[in-house]
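Collaborator request, handled under Task 6.
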Amino acid sequence: MGNMLRQFTQRCVAGIEANAERCRYYAESTIALATALNPRIGYAKAAELVKESVATGERIVTLARKKKVLSDAEIDEVLDPMKMTEPRAPVKGEK
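Structure tokens returned to the collaborator:
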């Protein structure tokens, strides 16, 4: 098993580099981003964005800007995939 892992690492993993632009595209394209909009615009409006995104292939971020559901600054804050992956401090009373 140890030899297999070394070979796998050498031949398959070593030297792999992420395509940051492509990763960002996928992160910004996922319809899961709409869940971050729920507290701000409500479930119904977020669901509309998701349905349109699926039908047209447009990103949630693009549709949110186009439909002006929030200001550009709010969209940048709420739909920032990097911020969504950072740990946050618990809210008072939250377990």
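The cover message to the collaborator said: "The mean pLDDT is 88. Residues 31-85 form a domain with the Ribonucleotide Reductase Protein R1; domain 1 fold (CATH 1.10.40.30). Please let us know whether this matches your experimental observations."
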